[in-house]
Amino acid sequence: MKELLKLPEGTHTVILGVGDLNGIMRGKRIPATNWETICNNGNALSAALFAVDMTCDIWDTPFVNMGNGYPDCHIFPINQPVAIPWEPGVAITFARAETTDHKPVPIDPRNALLNQVERAKSMGFDFQVGTEVEFFLLDPETGKPRDQGIQVYSLDRAAELEHVIGPIRQQINECGIPIEQSNPEYAAGQVEVNVRYGEAVQSADRLVMFRSLVKQLALAHGYQATFMAKPFFEESGSGFHCHYSVLKNGKNIFSDNGKLSQTGRFFVGGLQKRMAESAICGSATVNGFRRRQPYTFCPVNTTWGVDNRTVGIRIIEGSDSATRVEKRDGGADCNPYLLLAADIAAGLDGIENKMEPSEITTGDGYADSEAGAIPTSLSEAIELAQKSEWLKNILGDHLWELVIQQSERELDFFNNQVTPMETERYQGNF
Question: What is the pTM of this model?
Answer without folding.
Answer: 0.95
